[in-house]
Specification:
Length: 330
């Protein structure tokens, strides 16, 4: 829709963004939803994060998948033909390892990436079909995080054999524990007995390693966090003074999570013209932007079991920093 922002300008705004920002900035403490991170600039910055020396997550999980791909595919297939679906596929960079192993095993494989971003899916489809012959990509644009039943469905499309659903990259850690359980249950509902689910989770480790992973020396993560405000400035005609909001990454040991905040370094007033909204910040007041829960060993397996998946195998790196768990639908 269009809103008359001032007599001279008409700004076209996304109602979902508007609603989320209105609600988040009216909350105490203030917060903004994490999905706002991933506009084009944010997605690019996140890709950069995954290559930072401090951000061990992507590298560690990739190492596990690289050495275990064959075993994972063979366990999941269980003697039958396998198709692979992936939640939050994004650019599907680590998934190639599993797709290659599946093609080696059975000649061809159907791959169904699910993501909210149609453009990310389209890019992934083109690249994968070009680079891994034998993979048929059937993308689905879907918000798997919203639980209204019919929106989240993994249709069988008349395919034979077993399915493997991937949820890697530790994205499960960005959900509150109860929402994470809901998501696992929803995945189980979309599957048939004998199908499998592969979940990647980041594990609890020393505080310094965790904090550095979310507050790198080059400042990429800070730029990623602040990009939220850049986005509000351009999309909602706001006047956030970006540099006065400090990126904070803190380990909350009681809740076993990394928390990301943006802290106002002075008392200030911000105007969001397109929302006709004025927001005051006290000095030191924060906007809570993201949580990343870290699991203890065995916790993912317990949650999967509770959702109806019998634990089949768990693989970790030699430091025990990250776990990849396979469960079979009971
Ligand atoms: N899923 C990522 C994670 O929890 C997202 C992420 C990485 C992130 N770095 C961040 C989110 C910094 C907010 C701020 O590891």
């Amino acid at each position: 829709m269009s809103v008359a922002a001032s007599p001279a300008t008409i700004v076209s705004i996304d109602e979902c963004v508007a609603e989320a920002v209105r609600e988040g900035l009216a909350s105490r403490p203030k917060r903004l939803p994490a999905w706002l991170f991933y506009d084009a600039a944010g997605s690019r910055l996140f890709d950069e994060i995954t290559e930072l020396p401090e951000y061990y997550l992507t590298r560690t999980e990739r190492g596990i998948l690289a050495s275990r791909a064959k075993e994972i595919v063979s366990l999941a297939a269980d003697g039958a033909r396998l198709s692979i679906a992936e939640l939050g596929a994004g650019s599907a960079e680590k998934t190639r390892l599993l797709l290659k192993a599946a093609v080696e095993r059975q000649g061809t494989v159907v791959y169904e990436p699910v993501d909210v971003s149609a453009s990310a899916l389209d890019g992934a489809r083109k690249r994968i079909q070009r680079e891994i012959p034998g993979v048929t990509v059937a993308p689905r644009v879907m918000d798997y995080t919203r639980g209204d039943g019919h929106k989240f469905r993994l249709e069988r499309n008349g395919q034979q054999g077993r399915r493997l659903v991937l949820y890697i990259g530790s994205s499960i850690g960005n959900f509150e524990p109860s929402a994470a359980m809901q998501l696992l249950r929803r995945v189980r509902t979309g599957l048939t007995t004998g199908d499998s689910f592969l979940l990647g989770v980041d594990l609890v480790k020393d505080k310094a390693t965790l904090q550095n992973a979310y507050d790198d020396a080059a400042g990429v993560t800070a730029a990623f966090n602040r990009n939220l405000l850049v986005r509000l400035n351009s999309e909602l005609d706001a006047d956030f003074d970006i540099e006065t909001f400090l990126h904070c990454a803190v380990w909350n040991s009681k809740k076993s999570r990394m928390e990301m905040h943006l802290a106002s370094q002075s008392a200030q007033r911000v105007r969001l013209e397109a929302l006709n909204l004025t927001v005051d910040f006290a000095r030191g007041e924060t906007i809570h932007t993201e949580n990343s829960y870290k699991y203890r060993p065995g916790q993912a397996e317990e949650m999967m079991a509770e959702a109806g998946f019998a634990p089949a195998a768990t693989w970790t790196d030699e430091r025990g920093w990250f776990a990849v768990c396979l469960g079979r639908a009971r």
